[in-house]
């Protein structure tokens, strides 16, 4: 999955650091990310910038995290513009899933999550005053009332429902993403994760499930989420009642009929491929 970057090590401990010329930087603007141009688009370094531009960028950035000994910074796009930067261009953020190797994609997704946090909390939700970045922890603090906000991480479930040797696969309604997926949904207030599984399955496809079993979890910066994967068995009729505002289709599919067009970055895809390759029981035995 996207967070599996071994042998590289991700360090997300909060620190206040100044960038070096060989440090990497992220620059986001209106749904796009700044990358180096070439056969292998990757995260740019300050050293790739001309002197004047480099000085401006290094004066308006914040430390995010490190991978091994490599530091990554976020440039404030409201303070400096991306001009006069040969070899560096803006690309649509949809490219994040395609960046290679995996640690590059993972770093870009984590950076985009933190960028959303900082840019969506410029003003206090309690009194409307300007928020400032804390020097003690990863948070935004109101300059007037002291209200403190931390990066949003929303818990959500992924559910693989099995019945008569088939897996229920769905497709989202009204999204650019067109591959098959598993049922998914966010946890609501007052719910356990298992409550979320039962509610989401009933709401989206009108089915009941039993024998709900936890599988694995995954940080998913694309939607500021932590995903929890569950297997479940159908309890009752397999007749689907589709919530067409959420899904365009839901079908029971045998392993041999499942397409091969899945990647290795998501928990959803890992679970689908486990079912397709007949390895679900192996994963349960490993946990026992």
UniProtKB/TrEMBL annotation:
Cofactor dependency: Mg(2+); Zn(2+)
UniProt-recorded Gene Ontology molecular function terms: metal ion binding; NADH pyrophosphatase activity
EC number in record: 3.6.1.22
Reactions this protein catalyses: a 5'-end NAD(+)-phospho-ribonucleoside in mRNA + H2O = a 5'-end phospho-adenosine-phospho-ribonucleoside in mRNA + beta-nicotinamide D-ribonucleotide + 2 H(+)
Top enzyme category: hydrolase
Key words, A-Z: Hydrolase, Magnesium, Metal-binding, NAD
Listed name of the protein: NAD(+) diphosphatase
Organism this protein belongs to: Lacrimispora xylanisolvens
């Amino acid at each position: 999955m996207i967070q599996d970057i071994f042998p590289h090590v991700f360090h997300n401990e909060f620190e206040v650091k100044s960038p070096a010329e060989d440090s990497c930087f992220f620059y986001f603007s209106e749904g796009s990310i700044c990358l180096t141009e070439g056969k292998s688009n990757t995260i740019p370094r300050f050293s790739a910038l001309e002197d004047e531009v480099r000085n401006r960028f290094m004066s308006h950035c914040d430390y995010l995290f490190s991978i091994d000994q490599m530091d990554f910074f976020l440039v404030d796009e409201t303070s400096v513009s991306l001009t006069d930067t040969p070899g560096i261009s803006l690309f649509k953020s949809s490219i994040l899933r395609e960046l290679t190797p995996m640690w590059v994609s993972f770093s870009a997704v984590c950076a985009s999550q933190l960028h959303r946090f900082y840019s969506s909390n410029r003003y206090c939700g309690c009194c409307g005053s300007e928020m400032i970045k804390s020097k003690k922890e990863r948070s935004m603090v109101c300059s007037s009332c002291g209200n403190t906000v931390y990066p949003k991480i929303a818990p959500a479930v992924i559910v693989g429902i099995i019945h008569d040797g088939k897996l229920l696969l769905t497709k989202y309604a009204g999204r650019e993403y067109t591959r098959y997926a598993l049922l998914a949904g966010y946890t609501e207030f007052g719910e356990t994760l298992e409550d979320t599984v039962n509610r989401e399955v009933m709401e989206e496809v009108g089915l009941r499930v039993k024998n709900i079993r936890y599988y694995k979890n995954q940080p998913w910066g694309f939607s500021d989420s932590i995903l929890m994967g569950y297997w479940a068995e159908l309890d009752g009729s397999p007749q689907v009642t589709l919530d067409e505002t959420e899904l365009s289709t839901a079908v029971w599919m045998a392993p041999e009929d499942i397409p091969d067009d899945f990647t290795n970055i998501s928990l959803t895809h890992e679970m689908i491929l486990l079912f397709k390759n007949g390895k679900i029981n192996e994963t349960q035995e490993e946990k026992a």
